[in-house]
């Protein structure tokens, strides 16, 4: 899936200061919005046609997080 810009976007998050591209690969900017009232970051992703077909036929979404702690996350589909 590809992260995309969206109307409510307020910033683009970059790689953490200690990111090692040789170890973890490239870290591209992530368009996102922060809701201070809810203490939530949000990003919007667009699946490719291949990914859409995979999901239609029982595929699953995999969420990869780098680091030793697992932050709370939520994934949903919206139109």
Describe this structure in words.
The longest helix has 8 residues, at 49-56. The protein has a 3-stranded antiparallel beta sheet with strand order 2-3-4, with no helix packed on it. It has one domain. By secondary structure, it is an alpha+beta fold. It is built from 2 helices and 5 strands, in the order E-E-H-E-E-E-H.
Strands, helices and their partners?
Layout: E1 2-4, E2 11-13, H1 21-24, E3 30-35, E4 40-42, E5 44-46, H2 49-56
Antiparallel strand pairs: 1-5, 2-3, 3-4
Quaternary state reads single chain
Overall number of domains: 1
Mean pLDDT, to the nearest integer, reads 88
Radius of gyration: 14 Å
Number of strands: 5
Helix content: 10-25%
Question: How do the SSEs run, as a string of H and E?
Answer: EEHEEEH
Number of helices: 2
Q: How large is the share of residues in beta strands? A: 15-25%
Side by side, the strands of the main sheet go 2-3-4
Structural class: alpha+beta
Span between termini: 15 Å
* Biggest sheet layout: 3 strands, antiparallel
Anisotropy-based shape: globular
Low-pLDDT residue spans: none
